[in-house]
């Protein structure tokens, strides 16, 4: 038998091998779990859509998954429609640190729910934005939003949108029930106390001869002032366009009743009409221009089709002046050089597509309240104000057409059964003011 000699392994070398010493493989073999150090992360509980930066580096818009950071102090910043807000965070090594909205200085929050539907009550899933900031998840459910003064816009494809200026208060919950209809966008005008008539002191003098030189007096002595309370209402952002008016005919709603058609005065200048007055076929290039050469019964029929009505004269003036008593020329009044005009006047003659002059918008965003065409409104009867006589439908015009000049505050002549190439219209509807509610820990309650 052949015996081989086996050298003995020293105890020190055996220990090095078993412990994976300097000559061992640092990587564990298959099936052996690797223990990596835990990551340091930040979890943000803030409104969706806010832009998030960490130490000056943009990370994207919330919601974001946990952000991996190095242990230690970090400067966080979020940006949204109300500006920027910052927070200082000390992240512990290997821990998940939650950063809440309350940790950001100057980040005040409210909640918003938008419930939108069609005229027939069909529910919609609209797009909701505050200023230029999209609000994810606000349709039908409560969404956290920054709190400040913002313009809410609700849109759905194929329908006119809804616009409202809202002063969102921190800690309040807001619900907006919105009906979206065909035609122009609608703007909610918050009501208030208003003096219908010219700005400045009350200089009413019924014996004043208004044919004398206008520049020789201050104010408007021949016009009586009326103190009124205006309820909240909604009004079309633009004049109804020729294309929108044509759609009512295509839907079979705005047909011409023989009784009305035979007693309606035709326009003086057919060539200035944007649609054919009989068939309502569009004329070339006129689709986005105001619908003119429309009698009052035709305008009322269109507004009825979209669940609205003609605005009252009071609503129109209140909206044209942005609800501001100091504004005088929003509807083209330039009879006196001493009047404070809040926007420039139209020097051009001829019609333009609606909203061609955005610099002339009212404070709430209404277009063309002092140009393009005059607009049909329902005459407002107030205590002490004479009623109209011999005016079917009680409809007059306000505003000015084609950059012309008109005495403000006074209605034009009755236009009920006349198709006027210088007149158009927009629609309005009633609107309820909804009180904001307080919220705490997700539970709402009336404050």
Number of distinct helices: 5
What portion of residues belong to β-strands? 25-35%
CATH architecture of the largest domain: Alpha-Beta Complex
Q: Decide which structural class fits the backbone.
A: mainly beta
Radius of gyration, taken over Cα atoms and rounded to an integer in Å: 34 Å
Low-confidence stretches: 1-26, 441-447
Q: How much helical structure, as a percent, in the residues?
A: under 10%
What does this structure look like?
9% of the residues lie in helices and 27% in strands. A seven-stranded mixed sheet has the order 10-9-12-13-15-18-22, with no helix packed on it. It has a five-stranded mixed sheet with strand order 11-8-14-23-24, with no helix packed on it. With 447 residues, the chain is mostly beta strands. It folds into three domains: 40-103, no CATH class; 109-180, Sandwich (Immunoglobulin-like), CATH 2.60.40; 189-435, paralog of FGE (formylglycine-generating enzyme) (Alpha-Beta Complex). It has five helices and 24 strands.
């Amino acid at each position: 038998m052949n015996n081989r000699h086996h050298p003995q392994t020293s105890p020190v070398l055996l220990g090095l091998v078993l412990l994976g010493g300097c000559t061992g493989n640092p990587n564990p073999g298959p099936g052996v779990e690797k223990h990596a150090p835990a990551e340091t992360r930040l979890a943000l509980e803030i409104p969706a859509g806010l832009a998030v930066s960490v130490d000056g580096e943009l990370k994207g818009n919330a919601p974001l998954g946990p952000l991996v950071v190095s242990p230690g102090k970090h400067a966080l910043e979020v940006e949204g429609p109300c500006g920027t807000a910052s927070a200082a965070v000390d992240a512990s090594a290997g821990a998940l640190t939650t950063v809440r909205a309350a940790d950001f200085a100057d980040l005040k929050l409210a909640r918003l729910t938008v419930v939108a539907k069609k005229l027939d009550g069909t529910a919609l899933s609209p797009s909701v934005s505050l200023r230029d900031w999209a609000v994810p998840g606000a349709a039908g459910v409560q969404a956290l939003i920054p709190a400040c003064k913002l313009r809410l816009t609700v849109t759905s494809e194929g329908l006119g949108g809804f616009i409202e200026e809202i002063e969102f208060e921190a800690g309040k919950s807001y619900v907006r029930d919105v009906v979206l209809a065909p035609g122009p966008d609608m703007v909610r005008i918050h009501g208030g106390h208003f003096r219908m008539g010219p700005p400045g002191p009350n200089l009413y003098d019924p014996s004043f001869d208004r044919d004398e030189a206008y520049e020789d007096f201050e104010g408007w002595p021949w016009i009586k002032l009326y103190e009124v309370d205006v309820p909240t209402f909604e009004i079309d952002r633009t004049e109804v366009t020729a294309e929108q008016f044509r759609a009512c005919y295509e839907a079979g709603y705005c047909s011409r009743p023989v009784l009305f058609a035979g007693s309606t005065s035709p326009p003086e200048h057919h060539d200035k009409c944007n649609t054919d007055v009989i068939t309502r076929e569009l004329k070339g290039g006129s689709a986005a221009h105001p619908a003119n050469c429309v009698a009052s019964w035709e305008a009322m029929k269109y507004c009825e089709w979209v669940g609205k009505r003609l605005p009252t004269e009071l609503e129109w003036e209140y909206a044209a002046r942005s609800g501001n008593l100091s504004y005088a020329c929003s509807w083209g009044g330039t009879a006196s050089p001493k009047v404070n005009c809040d926007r420039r006047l139209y020097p051009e003659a001829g019609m333009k597509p609606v909203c061609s002059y955005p610099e002339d918008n009212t404070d709430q965003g209404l277009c063309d309240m002092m140009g393009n065409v005059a607009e049909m409104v329902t005459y407002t009867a107030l205590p002490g104000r004479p009623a109209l006589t011999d005016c079917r439908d009680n409809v007059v015009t306000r505003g000015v057409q084609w950059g012309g000049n008109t005495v403000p505050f006074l209605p034009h002549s009755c236009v009920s059964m006349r198709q006027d190439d210088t007149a158009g219209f927009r629609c309005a509807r009633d609107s309820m003011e909804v009180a904001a509610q307080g919220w705490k820990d997700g539970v709402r309650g009336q404050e």
